[in-house]
Amino acid sequence: MAKKCGRPAKNADQVNSKQRIIDTTIDLIRKKGADYITVRNVCAAADLSIGTFYHYFRGKDDLLMYFVRETSFKSCSLETPLNMIGDRISELYMRLINRYMEFGLDFMKSFYTAGNHSLSAYMSEVEGQFEPDTVMARSEREIGAAQKQGIIKQSANAHEICMDICTIVKGCVLEWCLMEGNMDMKGALQRIVNLYIRNYLT
Hints:
It is built from ten helices and no strands. By secondary structure, it is an all-alpha fold.
């Protein structure tokens, strides 16, 4: 049963409470799936008050967004040169995928579902644009930079390319989950993205 106390104390307990919410959420997603995540279920499992939860997160969607927004893509450095744009985009997406894979196969299976509206919102567009600091927005910047350097055709629609690549990534993640993690995710992603990008190279 969740505690009925109010706002958490201002010290290390605050950090510990937030981490307990995050750790409990990971555990619940692994065991019961993302659809099971509610404020009440998380608080009960973490033995924390609902008031404590709302001190850190605005709600279920805000909590799940933590897992997709904790990695910043706006200014992260990439090792692959721009002239290898397919591999560079793959490296970018693998930063996100590797973070999820750290949580394990069960987490991935349960997180990448149609019912996870936070993930769907993150990996989509709003009024024809990607949200700033997302992996898709950075991907579009990279494609645009490749166009300026004459690597990708000027006539290509960078936004459309990035939407397609996002779909490719989702397919690779699904296949990895279906194969119980027995798949070279990075190799598959590089191969398929490069085959797709080839159509737009100058």
